[in-house]
Specification:
The protein has no helices and 8 strands. By secondary structure, the chain is mostly beta strands. Strands 1, 2, 3, 4, 5, 6, 7 and 8 form an 8-stranded antiparallel sheet that branches. A hairpin with a 6-residue loop joins strand 6 and strand 7.
Length: 122
Amino acid sequence: MKDVGSKVWLIPDAYYPKESRGKFHSHDAVCVLNPGKEDAQITMTLYFEDHEKMEGLKAVCKAERTNHIRMDKIRFCDGKGVPRGVPYAIMVESNVNIIVQYSRMDTTQAEMALMTTMAYPL
């Protein structure tokens, strides 16, 4: 297979909703496809409007696999999670080429919404 993807991806509009209603929980996810033959070692940095960036979120996407990294479940080295109800941006970096998509499930209203978009590759 031809080498596809990129090692750096940007997601400028991320948001982890503060509330959930019903049986589904609001969340956002960084969806990764690794079509290569080597595991992807992934690092994420979060950027905010009104405070310093948060660095050091780590994940792995095995070779020739996918990984849907739920932002409500991942933790930084210090144990902190992604803040809820605050807009942020994400830079996804990998040691190998990957493909990145972003999804958000918003269940703050009875008419829940699911949004997804491709990240921007550098």
